[in-house]
Amino acid sequence: METTHRVVVDDARELGAIDDDAVDLVVTSPPYPMIEMWDDLFTELDPAIGDALEAGDGAAAFEAMHAQLDRVWDELERVLVDGGIVCLNVGDATRSVDGSFRVYPNHARVTESFESRGFDPLPDVLWRKPTNSAAKFMGSGTLPPNAYVTLEHEYILVFRKGSDRRSFEPRADRRYEAAYFWEERNTWFSDVWTDVKGELQELAYDDTDDLRERSAAYPLEIPYRLICMYSVYGDTVLDPFWGTGTTSLAAMCAGRDSVGYELEEAFLEVFDERVAAVPALSRSIGDARLERHREFVAQRREDGETLGYEATHYETPVMTKMEREIRLREVSSVTESADGYRLEHEPLAGE
């Protein structure tokens, strides 16, 4: 099996390099409105945003920032197939503007935007992000009533384009082989991910102070998990806010095609080193999934429980009929070309 991966250095407000209905899944984390690290970027996109911040009009700045993201959502509506899924990682912002402290609910504004474009919201996920402060409150310390909760979670908002789910041909191999284990389903489809933690992103590139500040990368487990949950082998995954390429890396390991859009070309140089490690990374992820499943099987047997089916490609029982054809993939070779990367994938051995 072969997958292709490309990155377009351009503005995601116009995804001109992507045809209509060419993307099956979007997994991304945009710049968060009203987080100070993104002020300069948003102001470059619309100088009126800087004027609003300088004037102390937080509400106007918040809306103007989201208006720029809305242009990207317009493009997602065009390039995504009917029934395709958008998984969008976003956090709310807390900020004092003109002496007034408040929360700016990015997740609510994004949900409103997608609904207005005909997307159906699906149940979302919360996960804990890293925080730089050990304090669990803001404001007046331990004196009531003027302290504020510290935001330590982010949202993974999930939307489907239209009300109908994607359809597949009966017994489609690319779907059944991309199944996940029963116990993975129970963890992945929980609305709170307690087993995923944020991580600080290290960029192996000279003079990267600005890049590091603007990367805001999420842990690989998040896009990898979402790609396995909401796509099948042969699908194309888009990240319009590509950054350090974590979504593309996850797509490579999961055996899906990917496209990224990124304004900063220097990020691509950082990514080259990450791609070199993909064969070993994909193998370790697959091996870990199989090992966790075998531990699950051993625990059920120890508890006196049985599993009703045998996996076709691995010497292990599984819980459900739908799991029998699971076939994990590992990257066997990586070839760089003028338009991106081509990867060969082989079935992961069972032992």
TrEMBL record:
It catalyses: a 2'-deoxycytidine in DNA + S-adenosyl-L-methionine = an N(4)-methyl-2'-deoxycytidine in DNA + S-adenosyl-L-homocysteine + H(+). It comes from the Archaea. Keywords: DNA-binding, Methyltransferase, Restriction system, S-adenosyl-L-methionine, Transferase. Pfam families: N6_N4_Mtase. It is an enzyme of class 2 (transferase). Transmembrane segments: none annotated. One of its GO terms (biological process) is methylation. Its EC number is 2.1.1.113. Gene3D superfamilies: Vaccinia Virus protein VP39 (3.40.50.150). GO terms for molecular function: DNA binding; N-methyltransferase activity; site-specific DNA-methyltransferase (cytosine-N4-specific) activity. Residues 23-271 form the DNA methylase N-4/N-6 domain. InterPro entries: DNA_methylase_N4/N6 (IPR002941), MeTrfase_CN4_CS (IPR017985), RM_Methyltransferase (IPR001091), SAM-dependent_MTases_sf (IPR029063). Belongs to the N(4)/N(6)-methyltransferase family. N(4) subfamily. This is Type II methyltransferase. It comes from Salinadaptatus halalkaliphilus.
